[in-house]
């Protein structure tokens, strides 16, 4: 879906660059974005990009400002949550107290992503993993299921009589699974992504983002309702998922343009999430009530990939709300080659005994 080129800087640290030719629908947006922004950080969750961490005694927490030994650093702090597929990117600047505090954001992101994450089999861990939705009537498992065969598979089990969890479109070769998300707070989902962005930010910028850190930690509470800065631009692409999550920090080239200095983009599974980083010191002159431009970072899907599997779908997600969202419907659609109905094993309208994809 794209190529990554790896270089080394003067200190022998890996530097990655991403390259792809955009599909027609997003060609203009890709060109416009790259005219204004360049990537300053590209963090693929791959072994080669594992960072050397500072010894515990030399650590300082980026979030609360406290140092070791005043605070402890026992827990492995993920730059990108492990449930999004990160096994290699860790930080040495997040203390255990802050890590614990951030777990609330991560839980809300998990609830928001809902059942779409377990629908992707984790090929590197071919063991069974099961996730239930909040009513406990739909279960998604990934792994090797003896009844299906030796390949890694996804098994979806519905116990929800009459809930129509599955819609099968045989002629269109599509299977849609419907369910409800667990209750989540949109602003906490936003903070989960902001926390990743602030973790990926080069250390030199941390002080200039102190308002964003204060907002993340709850000591600064600006009005959020309806504020466009709390929008997240999202793409969902059909076809195979990204092999591993990647965090990207984009920086604007022209310091005088009325655009945010930094954007954070997270590529994971079949998604691209992008947020404009708020409250950077150098951007405060733009908070004057006049219009600023929020640019959309393209989903880094190559033209040939989009032609084969379909063009990514764009969505603007508004995460400014502090109120919990209950029973939010979500659907996941699969395309398939053929359906094999095993006699007696499927009855999706009544008993919902089981369907395997
Ligand atoms: Zn801390």
Automatic annotation (TrEMBL):
Molecular function (GO) terms for this protein are: endonuclease activity
**Which stretches make up the HNH endonuclease domain?**
61-100
Give the source's domain of life in one word. Answer: Bacteria
Q: Name one Pfam family in it.
A: HNH_5
| This protein's UniProt keywords | Endonuclease, Hydrolase, Nuclease
Q: What is this protein called?
A: HNH endonuclease
């Amino acid at each position: 879906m794209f190529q990554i080129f790896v270089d080394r800087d003067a200190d022998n640290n890996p530097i990655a660059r991403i390259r792809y030719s955009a599909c027609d629908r997003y060609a203009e947006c890709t060109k416009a974005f790259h005219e204004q922004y360049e990537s300053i950080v590209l963090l693929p969750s791959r072994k080669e990009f594992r960072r050397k961490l500072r010894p515990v005694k030399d650590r300082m927490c980026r979030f609360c400002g406290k140092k070791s030994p005043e605070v402890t650093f026992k827990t492995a702090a993920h730059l990108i949550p492990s449930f999004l597929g990160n096994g290699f990117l860790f930080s040495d600047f997040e203390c255990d107290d802050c890590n614990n505090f951030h777990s609330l954001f991560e839980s809300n992101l998990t609830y928001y992503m809902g059942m779409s994450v377990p629908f992707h089999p984790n090929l590197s861990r071919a063991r069974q993993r099961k996730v239930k939705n909040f009513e406990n009537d739909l279960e998604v498992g990934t792994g090797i299921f003896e009844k299906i065969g030796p390949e890694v598979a996804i098994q979806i089990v519905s116990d929800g009589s009459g809930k129509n969890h599955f819609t099968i479109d045989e002629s269109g070769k599509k299977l849609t699974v419907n369910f409800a998300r667990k209750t989540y707070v949109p602003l906490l989902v936003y903070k989960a992504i902001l926390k990743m962005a602030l973790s990926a930010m080069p250390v030199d910028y941390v002080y200039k983002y102190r308002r964003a850190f204060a907002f993340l930690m709850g000591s600064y509470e600006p009005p959020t309702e309806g504020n466009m800065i709390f929008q997240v631009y999202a793409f969902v692409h059909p076809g195979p998922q990204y092999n591993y999550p990647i965090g990207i920090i984009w920086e604007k080239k022209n310091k005088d343009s009325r655009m945010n200095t930094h954007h954070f983009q997270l590529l994971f599974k079949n998604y691209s999430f992008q947020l404009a980083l708020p409250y950077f010191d150098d951007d405060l002159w733009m908070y004057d009530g006049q219009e600023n431009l929020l640019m959309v970072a393209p989903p880094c899907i190559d033209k040939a990939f989009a032609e084969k599997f379909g063009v990514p779908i764009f969505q603007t997600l508004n995460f400014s709300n502090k109120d919990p969202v209950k029973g939010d419907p979500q659907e996941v659609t699969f395309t398939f080659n053929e359906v094999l109905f095993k006699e007696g094993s499927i009855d999706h309208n009544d008993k919902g005994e089981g369907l395997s994809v």
